[in-house]
Amino acid sequence: MSVAVEDGFYQSLKVFDALQYSNWFGSPQNDAVSYRVDRTLLQQWRDGGLAGVHVTVTLWDDARTCVDRVTRWYRAFQESADLIQICLAGADLERAKRASRTAVLLGFQNTSPFEDDIGLVEVFYRLGIRVAQLTYNIQNFVGSSCYEIVDGGLTRFGRAVVNEMNRLGMLIDLSHVGEKTSLDAIEHSSRPVAVTHANPLSFARHPRNKSETLLRAVARSGGVVGCSPYPPLMGRLDVTLEEWCQMVADLAAVIGAEHVGIGTDTSLGWTDADLLAMNVARWSRSENWGSNLPGQTGWCEPVAWYRSSNDFPTLCRGLRKVGLDEKEVAGILGHNWQRLLTTILG
Amino acid sequence: MSVAVEDGFYQSLKVFDALQYSNWFGSPQNDAVSYRVDRTLLQQWRDGGLAGVHVTVTLWDDARTCVDRVTRWYRAFQESADLIQICLAGADLERAKRASRTAVLLGFQNTSPFEDDIGLVEVFYRLGIRVAQLTYNIQNFVGSSCYEIVDGGLTRFGRAVVNEMNRLGMLIDLSHVGEKTSLDAIEHSSRPVAVTHANPLSFARHPRNKSETLLRAVARSGGVVGCSPYPPLMGRLDVTLEEWCQMVADLAAVIGAEHVGIGTDTSLGWTDADLLAMNVARWSRSENWGSNLPGQTGWCEPVAWYRSSNDFPTLCRGLRKVGLDEKEVAGILGHNWQRLLTTILG
Fold it and tell me: Using the beta-carbon criterion (under 8 Å), do A119 and B282 form an inter-chain contact?
C-alpha cells in the first residue's frame, strides 16, 4: 500500500473509477486462455483503495458473445471473492469498502449487445449490466459516434433503448457518442446521464472530448462527467499532474464540482495488435487507431503520475493542491458517482 | 396458362420481376414447418412466364439466421429443379427461359446479415447472394432508412460495404433507403445501382417513393428503377391499370425507358400478424405497419389487375396500350434488368 493511502482523508473516501478496460481475461488473439481473471489487476484496485470500478464488458460484441463475456465476470466474482464483488446498487460501494473489496460495475461501451432487439436490454439488465454507452466508434442502430461523418442523432430504435434503460435503471454513457446523438439522448432521457471517460474540449481538441454545451447538459440532467488521464484525451503526452488537476478544477467551476468525477480509461495488459483490433474490429479494412493522437500507432506510454489504480492517491493529492476543498475532492474521487449510481440503480 | 401468355411478343421476352417476398417456406410464427418450398408459388412464376425473379431472403436477420434462410433456397433448387434454378449471372435468365424454368436471384432487403463485419459481404456473395438493399426500415450500421428521423447519409462502414459490393459484383438496392444515404451511395459506388421496388414520389407521396433527383441519379449510374403495383406505394387502393402504366411511361420519359423496370413487391401467403412482425421485428414495442397507408392495418387487397405473377401478361398489354413501343416494353418487362444484372454480376 502506497504512503498516500495511509492518509486518513483518502482512506475515508469511497473512491470510484468510472472506466477501466484492462486485459483481465487474456488476449482475444489467444483462443487457448482459460478466461481466468488476472488477479494482479484486481490487487491493484485494492492497493489503490478503490471501493468501486466500472469495467467494460464489451466494445463491439453481439448478444451471444456478450453472454460469454459476462459469465467470465461471474466466475471471477466466485473465484476472487476476497478481492471483488458485483456492483448492482449505489450502496454496494459502501458494502464493498467495509469488506475491503472492490465493487465491480459491469458495463458495455456499445449498445451492440442489444442488436436490433429491444427485449435484449432487460436480458442484460437481469444479467447484471448496469451501464451502456450508446455507441462505440461507429454508427449503430441507436445513434452516431463522435467519429461518424454525419451525426444523425438518436434514432427511433435509440429512443426505445433510452426509454427501456430509464425504465430498468441502466446508466446511459455518452463518452464515445456524437454530440447531436448525445444531446438528443439527454433530452429524451427521463434520468441523469453520464460521460464516464472524456475531457473538456477546451482542454484538448479531440473528437472524444466534450463541448461546454454538452458538459453543461450532462450536469443539468443530474449526471457526472469522468475526467481521464488517458494521454490521447489530454491532447499531448507531457501533461503534468498539476495541469490535469487544474483542468478538473476548471470543469468543476463551470458545471459544479458535484457533477465531476474520474474515469481513467486505464487499459493494461494489451498488445498493440489488441489496440488495433479494438478500433478496427471487423468494420473496416483500413488501419484505425481510435482515439490515438495523429500519427500515433500502438499504445502510448502512460503519464508518470498515473500508471494504474495504485496512483489514485496521487490524483487525490493533486486535486487538493489546486485548491479544491475536501468535500469537492471527495465528490470527484467517488462520492458523485455513488450518488448518481444510487439515483439510477436504486 | 393465361390467354395473354400465348401472345408471341410476350412469349419472346425474358420477363423479370425485381422484387417478390412471399411466404415460400412457411410462417415465421410456425416453428414446426419443414421449410419445404410452396410449389404453388413457383408454379405462378411459370404460369406468368417469368424468366427470373429477385426474391427476398431476409428483411432483418443476422448472419447466422440468414445462412439458414439461404439453405432453404438450396433445398428448393434441388427439390424443385423442374421449376426453378439459382440466378448467379445475367445469362441465367436466358438459360432458365430455354429450360422453361424461373431463375431465382437471391437478395437481402437489409445489410443486417453483414452485421458490423466487412468480411461477411464476401461470405454471402459466395453463398449466392447477389443483391443487398443498404437498409430496411430503420437506421443500421450502413445508413438511414427512408423512415428515419434524420438521414445521416452513408456511414464509414457503409462506404466499406459499397466498395466491397462493387468489388465482388453484388447489386446495391436503394428501395427502402433514405434519400441522402441513397445519393451518397450512388456517388460512392463505382457501379450502377438499383431501386428494385418503388414508385416516383410525383405519382404518390409516400416515404418509400423516390424524388426525381434520386430517380435521375439512379439512371445516370446506369441503373434501373422497378415500378410497383403494391397498393400502398400507389398511394390509394383504386389505381387503375391504365393510370399505373401511364406512371411507368411518364417515368420512362423522364429518366429513359432503358432505366425503367418492374418490381412488384408481390407478398403472398402471409397473415396480418406476419406483416406486423415484418415491420416491428424486434426493434420497437409500438405498432408499426411499415409502408401501409395511414390508418391501414394488415395487408390490403391487391388491385384486380395485378394479384400475382400470373398477371404479368396484363401488365404487358397495359404498357403497350399507353403508347410504349415494343422495344421499350421489352426493356421494362425484363431486358433492362437483364442488362443491369449482366453488368453487375458478369
Answer: yes
pTM for the model: 0.87
Interface of A with B in 147-166 (CB under 8 A): 147-158, 160
Q: Which of helix, strand or coil describes residue A242? A: helix
Per mean pLDDT, which range of A165-174, B23-32, B90-99, B104-113 is the poorest? B23-32
3-state SS assignment for residue B143: coil
Q: For residue A312, which of A7, A13, A49, A94 has the smallest C-alpha distance?
A: A49
- Inspect the interface and report whether the beta carbons of B119 and A282 lie closer than 8 Å: yes
- Say what the pLDDT of residue A32 is: 47
CA dihedral A312, A314, A320, A326 (to 10 degrees): 40
Nearest residue of B to residue A157, measured between CA atoms = B283
Rounded to a whole number of angstroms, the distance from the CA of B318 to the nearest CA of chain A is 41
CA triple A81-A85-A87, angle to 5 deg: 175
Find, among A63, A155, A52, the residue nearest to A94 by Cα. Answer: A52
Cβ–Cβ contact A111 with B under 8 A: no
Q: Which three cell numbers stand for residue B188?
A: 460512392
- Report residue A67: phi and psi, to 5°: -60, -45
CA dihedral A203, A206, A212, A213 (to 10 degrees): 180
DSSP string over A77-110: HHHTTTTEEE--STHHHHHHHHTT-EEEEEEESS
Which of A109, A114, A116 to mutate: most B Cβ within 10 Å?
A116
Question: Using an 8 Å Cβ cutoff, are A328 and A255 in contact?
Answer: no
Taking alpha carbons only, the member of B82, B13, B78 closest to residue B52 is B13
Of B152, B157, B284, which has the smallest distance from its Cβ to A150's Cβ?
B152
Q: Which of B62, B112, B152 lies nearest to residue A139, judging by beta carbons?
A: B152
Beta carbons of A115 and B156 less than 8 Å apart: no
The predicted-structure confidence for B226-250, as pLDDT tens digits, reads as follows 999 999 999 999 999 999 999 999 9
**Res. A117 pLDDT band, cuts 50 70 90:** very high
User: Alpha-carbon distance B341 to B51, whole Å?
Assistant: 13
What ranges make up the beta strands (E) of chain B?
A: 15-20, 50-58, 84-86, 102-108, 129-133, 171-173, 194-195, 224-227, 260-262
Q: From CA B185, how far away is CA A343, in angstroms rounded? A: 44
Rounded to whole angstroms, the Cα distance separating B56 from B49 reads 20
Among residues A127, A145, A128, which one has the least CA distance to residue A136? A145
The reply to whether ipTM tops 0.90 is: no
